[in-house]
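Supplementary Methods S3. Complex input for the zinc ion-bound model.
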Amino acid sequence: MYSVTKEIKWEMGHRLTLHKGKCFNLHGHSYRAFITIESNGLDDNGMVMDFYKFGPVKDWVDLVWDHAMMLNEADPIYNLHQLGRDYKLVLVPGEPTAENIARWLFEAAAKILPDEITFWISHVTVWETATSNATYNGI
Ligand SMILES: [Zn+2]
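Predicted complex, serialized as structure tokens:
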């Protein structure tokens, strides 16, 4: 078994609507995600997957999530934001925790990466702070 991992970084705001502590407030993080691809074998180049193939995933993160505000679609605060000028808002079907962000990035990467049977996404780990991360394994 081989694996390769690509790191992707972005800045994003969020809040947790049900949190009893400080995460209830609008705030932001410098997110780091590690996307790991596994394969039972190597291609003709001796690779699991060429790292450049992660490029479209990074492009997607930059376009959709970087410098956005990610809010639970059930969070009433997004209506207040609609009063202002257009801004980068990402409404998601759940609390924007590191766990859920790892799952959503896993699912986005699964759609973006080439559909080749020689490899598969093993897991995505999202670092929300320098000391805290969450992982989604896709199972
Ligand atoms: Zn947070």
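The radius of gyration is 16 Å. The mean pLDDT is 92.
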